[in-house]
Specification:
The chain is an alpha+beta fold and 406 residues long. The protein contains 13 helices and 20 strands.
Length: 406
Amino acid sequence: MHDHRRLGRELGLFDTDPLVGAGLPYWLPDGAVVRHTLEEYVREAERAAGYRHVYSPVLGKRELYELSGHWDHYRDDMYPPMELGGEQMLLRPSLCPHHALIFRSRARSHRELPLRMAELGGMYRAERSGVLGGLTRVRAIQLNDAHIFCTPDQAVEEAAGALALISRAYADLGIRASRHRLSLPGGGGKYVADPALWRRATALLREVLDASGVAYEAVEGEAAFYGPKIDVQITDPAGRESTLSTVQIDFHQPERFGLHHIGPDGARHRPVMVHRSVIGSVERAVAHLLEEHGGAFPPWLAPVQLVVLPVGADQEERAHAVAREATALGLRAEVSGPDEGSLGARIRRARLVPYQAVLGAREADDGLLAVRLRDGRRPGVLPVAEFLRRVGQRVRARGTALWDPA
């Protein structure tokens, strides 16, 4: 059983410091590579799906969160206000109020809908010290968030598209959902009081789930305060379940913010807001990837994708040339030379690197590499250009496969 906290420190991915504070990890160089690669993957997938990216501030006035409903329904999870120039400013607990403001920043036509707005942005939750742990529960969150502004008739198709995007990402990342949950409101004053809107949004999400063919169960008390949601659940090696990805249909905030677009009839119409997150928080996603793969990330996500292993000092210059060639092709390559130990010791140390290329005297003379894969397979001796082409092809294809047939 893998623990991402132990692995993260052993592999030099992230760490913490008491002077920074609990629940506030920092990312080391190899961890930053994983995070950056994951973020760029999500941005690329979103661009291909028709999303436009924005940036918005991590601070907002208290009045903003009063308007959105966060202050009334979510205050216990927010940081206290900061007094600044006679105004109360808050670290945002969510990105959706900011995106609603961006939508209403100018007049919108029905021709613009669906308008898919995405951001990888910071948000902050005042988590209690007792629940903090590694990357799974943190106080500063980098969230892969998006909001689709659409007509009611478009909401089911857009939510279904978001669910399909999540499914494709899980396949590329080599992870799987343990179950899908339709999260509904429970008792108490945690939820906004508008039964008609709740029924309408719930019916639409049921339609999305039924059409997708995935098994799901409805659970009360797990909805967002403003609407029901589809939660894509994951389970760690210890059997603990958590939510990684979500799809939500929201009629509440468009009404609170007075959002509208001009329809074909020239009149104002209220859009629906579909909230969706493909990988949830980057922190939780990396924690789950670490535990799922034991640090052996899919080739496209690995911090180091190729290690070149010269057998002796005479091959080191050629090894560095191969690494430079790989780097020029966009691969993350390193050289592990004989000054770092015996060849066997270096191979064992690079056990999590997807591709190992051994370079002896004969290989160096003939422009060849003796190729080893992380899983123990040995595809044989290949010309350098052919090997790098095949690795590059595999990395660009993403997914979890290490090697394609010739």
